[in-house]
Amino acid sequence: MKIYTGGGDRGKTSLFSGERIAKNHDRVEAYGDIDELCSILGAVTASLAGKHPEVEAEIHGIQSDLMKVGALLSTSPDAPAFAELEKIEENTIRTLESSMDRMDTDLPPLRGFILPGGDMSAAWAHIARTVCRRAERHVIGLVDSFGDPGDGGDYLKVLAYMNRLSDYLFVLARYCNHLSDQSDILWKP
Amino acid sequence: MNPEKIQVYGTELLGRKNLSEDTCELRFFFPAGFSFLPGQFVRFENHDLKRDYSITTAPDEKVIELCVRDTRTGNFSSVLASAEIGTRFRFSGPHGYFVYRPSTRPLVFVATGTGVAPFVSMTRSGISGYIFLHGVRHTPDLYYENLFRNGAHIYVPCVSRSADEAESDIFPGKVTDYVETLLEKQPYDFYLCGKREMIRDVTFLVDDHFPGSRVYTEVFY
To answer: Residue A105 domain-assigned?
Structure first.
């Protein structure tokens, strides 16, 4: 099936729940950031070049979670289609925490602020971290716009996931440098 | 619509019924373990050729029927349309998200040509009370006319090139002309399937004249 229709040529797009909205709507900003984050994680795995398949597999799992986040953000919570979507659950967040704890055991203690950089995979992971924080800001805007917290219940879990993922990406960046035998670049003010 | 449900199946051509000079309905064996929602499609494969077809039967009919137009260009549709009864094929599925979603707004189904296929399945599955606009070039291409006359609240055949004088309820023009000039201006749930340009143009009309509506689309060609 072709995916292009030209229906977006005048600046509007359709949500998964069928509404037509402007492409600069807060909701589109939010899932656009998720799309960008998912793409940058692809750059992280590409730069690992097959040398660390366990890390690539973990990142693929996170990309899969981000696809679910994107679907949730592109669907109105009060639409029937929303109930069919897979949600972000507590154990997804716990999995990120376990991964961080595992990577931390191989890393030297942080002795100050570090500069983003080092191996290319680490550099991409830092970029992913900043895009994750931007996505988080846009999701906050969406949750605030609902007014009644009940409508945004699943979105609150998305927020918690984005917050944890940002921390994970910081640890991942350090871990990528560790895997390529590079030290953190300490900031010397 | 869980992607993990998508699998590859074997099937066999059981029968053929002509719908018009170049379009037929093909009936296939319903393999064990297969299930789908009305509006979804399957991807048929034959060596290097692949093509997507929306299922026209209802899930509980336990047979797969497809609406196939032979473009006579030697592509997969030509192969399928001319296959002998008993020929075996492979397909993957179910695919797609073009399914009925319950709503408080009135339904408008808009199809061009073979784009009627998902709406045939939806109607056979019990969905009724919708406005149906079927856009074709010539009246012989109004496939499944009786099904839609019985299932739709309002059935509007839109014939752009020629019209039988005896068919007094034919709208002489394109579906987009009808939507723009005759469809009452209020919020609807629009389901659009068929030609890419029709989907684009009706979507623009929805943006301009039908605020508060929902739009779901499936591009066929």
So the answer is: no
Interfacial B residues in 41-60 facing A (CB < 8 Å): 41, 52
Radius of gyration of chain A (CA): 18
The answer for B34, left when phi > 0, alpha when psi is -120 to 50, beta otherwise, is beta
Q: How far apart are CA A71 and CA A153, in angstroms?
A: 15
A106 belongs to a structural domain = no
The CATH number for A24's domain is 1.20.1200.10
Q: Pick the closest to residue B35 from B66, B12, B2 (CA basis).
A: B2
Q: Give the pLDDT mean for B33-54.
A: 91
Mutate: best of A5, A12, A17, partner B, most B CBs <10 A:
A5
A55: tokens are 């890390």
| Angle value at C-alpha B75, between B73 and B76, nearest 5 degrees | 145
Give yes or no for A153 touching B (CB within 8 A).
no
Is A36 part of a structural domain of the chain? yes
Secondary structure (3-state) at A139: helix
How much of chain A is helix, strand and coil, in % rounded to 5?
Answer: 65, 5, 30
The interface predicted TM-score of the complex, written ipTM, equals: 0.83
Q: How many domains does chain A have?
A: 1
Cα gap A159→A139, rounded to integer Å: 7
pLDDT score recorded for residue A80: 86
Task: Find which of B100, B204, B221 to mutate to test the A interface (most A CBs within 10 Å of its CB).
Answer: B204
Residue listed under structure tokens 């037509």: A20
- Residue among A138, A150, A122, A124 at smallest CA distance from A74: A138
Structure tokens at A167: 């921390």
A7 and chain B in contact, CB less than 8 A = yes
Residue A4 burial (C-beta neighbours within 10 Å; 0-12, 13-18, 19+) = exposed
The token duo for A77 is: 């919570």
Amino acid at A84: E
Between CA B162 and CA B109 the distance in angstroms is 22
**How far is residue B122's CA from residue B40's CA, in Å, rounded to a whole number?**
10
Which of A76-85, A86-95, A158-167, B25-34 is predicted with the least confidence, judged by mean pLDDT?
Answer: A76-85
Residues of B in contact with A3 (CB under 8 A): 219
Domain that holds residue A129: 20-100+111-183
Residue A85 lies in a domain: yes
